[in-house]
Amino acid sequence: MENTNMLYREVSALRFKDNSKKRIKEVVPYDVEFLLKINEKTKKYRITPKSLKAFTIGYLFGNGIVKSLKNIHELKIDGKTIIVKVNKDSLPLSPVKSKLKISTEDVFESFKSLEKNAKIWKITGGTHIAGLISDGNKIFEEDISRHAAIDKVLGHGILKNLNFSESFVVYSGRVSDSLILKLTRLGIPIVISNAAPMYSALSLAKDYNITIVGFVRDRRFNVYTCPHRISL
């Protein structure tokens, strides 16, 4: 079982309440700045320091840098530097082909599972969580970065060789155009969130045949695009 104690830190804070104040102990999520070096290009990413291999693989596929694990010649984690050597070969952007359909209960149950696995968020209130649900497989990752949480579950799915056309993502953040592009490249047909989609995401989702479910709360939700995949 993973030790979540390594993923947050105790700090001192001054709490103001009504007309009084007092010194208290609080916990905040622990974040680390990593250098991601892909071939000769380096970028900085501040993320939660766990599942770094999955993060890197999800990032490479989701951002259209590689389309196969065979394109990755080296992946090495050296302290706070992630070194990757790849033969660039991007996944094409084309409408998602999938026969996947899920029920309203699947939507609610997936979000219950997401909330149950939000262990760092329950302690700190400072992380996002993403889940990948695929034919009995449930993969969850928390991160201070919503993008990194998604990259990590996608990376795990790639390493497990899951069938993405029969999978869906559940997620605690707004649905952006960049997220839709990641899902399109991997062929994932449904994303479910407790937040709102961005307008730019809606047009992309329509073009690429992705179902966006938003505002999952209190036994209700909205379906913004491709509603044929959700049944009562």
Automatic annotation (TrEMBL):
The keyword Ion transport does not apply. It comes from the Archaea. InterPro entries: Cytidine_deaminase-like, FdhD. The keyword Cytoplasm applies. Keywords: Cytoplasm, Molybdenum cofactor biosynthesis. GO terms for biological process: Mo-molybdopterin cofactor biosynthetic process. Gene3D superfamilies: 3.10.20.10, Cytidine Deaminase, domain 2. GO terms for molecular function: sulfurtransferase activity. Signal peptide: none annotated. Pfam families: FdhD-NarQ (PF02634). This is Formate dehydrogenase family accessory protein FdhD. It comes from Methanothermus fervidus (strain ATCC 43054 / DSM 2088 / JCM 10308 / V24 S).
